[in-house]
Design brief:
single chain; alpha/beta; Amidase signature (AS) enzymes; 11-stranded mixed beta sheet
């Protein structure tokens, strides 16, 4: 029987998954040691961050022991074997409560695993817990009415990004090696940008949604948040199967890629620091051999169509559950469900038609390009309670601004990846976003990986200790 030598590899929770996987593979750290290190860090830091709604310590240790026992008999399930992860609390795990961030679902114990978690478990992953989220993933606020604020590890008085608030904060703080969130209008990419992570909104259908409570079946996706594009590929391949993401990263280069930058859109709807970061990223791409050109595209006005689709479908789901309008929703989800109820069938149909038109507009603007390069967020993480922000010289609503560069890709069904792209003068992360047509997921992630090979933004960690 194999043993795990002690103290050869300190089980540092801020290391990338790929590095942890190599340490487990060569037996310099055990799954149990690693899991205990994360649980100890959660116990120490989570009271200050509120990244977890539920910590599944007993489940995690049992799964880690199982992973360790399998290895002792020569079984290794893959690069996620014994890797501790976390899930947004909208994703079902058999025998664990799924609250969806709502006060009235405290006894909603799942009967089976969501497909995404079942696949990660099959790959040997360990569940540390369920993460904080905005109620029913409806966004539009920085506070969960029941579970309170989730602090950004980089700036604790600031928002970590939503609606997958806790998943982003937990990975950034080293409370888990990676986490799953959902993205209906930016809810994976926004926390990734605010917390200095890689997050992907896949093409619809790439990852299964069974066992993930829906907001908008038309727009919903699920995606990982990790420190690196390589780690993201490991999680994606474990869920989707086939190995296409890791394969795409091998030999990834920016040389010869054609990248379109919607510069007018960027300049008119960002803070100067974010605009400068996108300009710097474009220069980095060009220096690495990419052909970078400005394109004429602005989809920031898509919010009306997004709301008509997302909240009308959300209202129908909640009504079918027998919850709406009677359950005690928090103020923001109540407002959004009410707006969905007020949306007429004609308005909903018109929004879908507008989505198709905008899809054609984006396809025309991006023709001949491998990806579009643009901001993930127009500003760095806002302070809790911040009501407005100045973008392009104009004062706008801060909550609405968070969707300016995110919602479009959900509405038109494109893939999009956010990657670390710099820091503000105050030390807050800035995300850069790569977007492309359906099916470009692996290619976009490969470009993000190539970008990370020539930048070091992703190697920096928040000053928690």
């Amino acid at each position: 029987m194999l043993t795990f030598p002690r103290r050869r590899f300190p089980p540092c929770p801020t290391r990338p998954i790929a590095e942890l996987a190599r340490a487990i593979l060569d037996h310099s750290v055990s799954p149990v040691e690693l899991t205990r290190a994360y649980l100890e860090r959660i116990e120490r830091l989570n009271p200050h961050l509120n990244a977890f709604i539920a910590i599944t310590a007993e489940i995690a240790l049992a799964q880690a022991r199982e992973a360790e026992a399998e290895m002792s008999y020569g079984t290794l399930r893959g690069p996620l074997h014994g890797i501790p992860l976390a899930l947004k609390d909208i994703i079902d795990v058999e025998g664990v409560t799924t609250t969806c961030g709502a006060s009235f679902l405290g006894d909603n114990v799942a009967e089976r695993d969501a497909a995404v978690w079942a696949n990660l478990r099959e790959a040997g992953a360990v569940l540390l817990g369920k993460t904080h989220m905005l109620e029913f993933a409806m966004g539009g606020t920085d506070r969960n009415h029941t579970f309170g604020y989730c602090a950004n590890p980089w700036a604790p008085a600031h928002f970590s990004g939503g609606s997958s608030t806790g998943s982003g904060a937990a990975v950034a703080a080293g409370l888990c090696a990676g986490a799953l969130g959902t993205d209906t209008g930016g809810s994976v990419r926004q926390p990734a940008a605010y917390c200095n992570l890689v997050g992907i909104k896949p093409t619809p259908g790439v990852l299964p949604l069974e066992g993930v409570f829906p907001l908008s079946p038309t727009l919903d996706t699920v995606g990982p948040m990790t420190r690196t594009a390589q780690d993201n590929a490991l999680m994606l391949d474990a869920i989707a199967g086939g190995g296409a993401f890791a394969a795409a990263l091998r030999g990834a280069t920016l040389a010869g890629k054609r990248v379109g930058v919607p510069w007018r859109w960027t300049a008119e709807q960002t803070t100067p620091e974010v605009a400068a970061a996108i300009e710097d990223a474009a220069e980095t791409f060009a220096a690495a051999g990419a052909e970078v050109a400005e394109i004429d595209l602005n989809l920031g006005h898509i919010a009306l169509s997004y709301g008509a689709i997302a909240f009308h479908e959300g209202m129908l789901t909640h009504r079918a559950q027998g919850w709406y309008p009677d359950k005690p929703y928090g103020p923001n989800p109540r407002k959004r469900l009410d707006s969905g109820a007020a949306t007429t069938p004609a308005e909903y149909a018109a929004a879908l038609e507008t989505a198709a038109e905008l899809r054609g507009e984006a396809e025309a603007a991006a023709q001949g390009f491998d990806a579009l390069l643009l901001p993930t967020q127009p500003m760095t993480a806002p302070a809790f309670g911040q009501e407005d922000v100045v973008l392009g010289g104009k004062r706008v609503d801060a909550a609405a601004a968070r969707g300016l560069f995110n919602m479009a890709w959900n509405v038109i069904g494109w893939a999009a990846v956010s990657a670390p792209g710099g820091f503000s003068n105050q030390g807050q992360p800035i995300g850069v976003q790569l977007a492309g047509p359906p099916g470009s997921d692996a290619a976009l992630l490969a470009m993000a990986h190539a970008y990370q090979q020539i930048t070091d933004w992703h190697t920096r960690h928040p000053p928690l200790e």
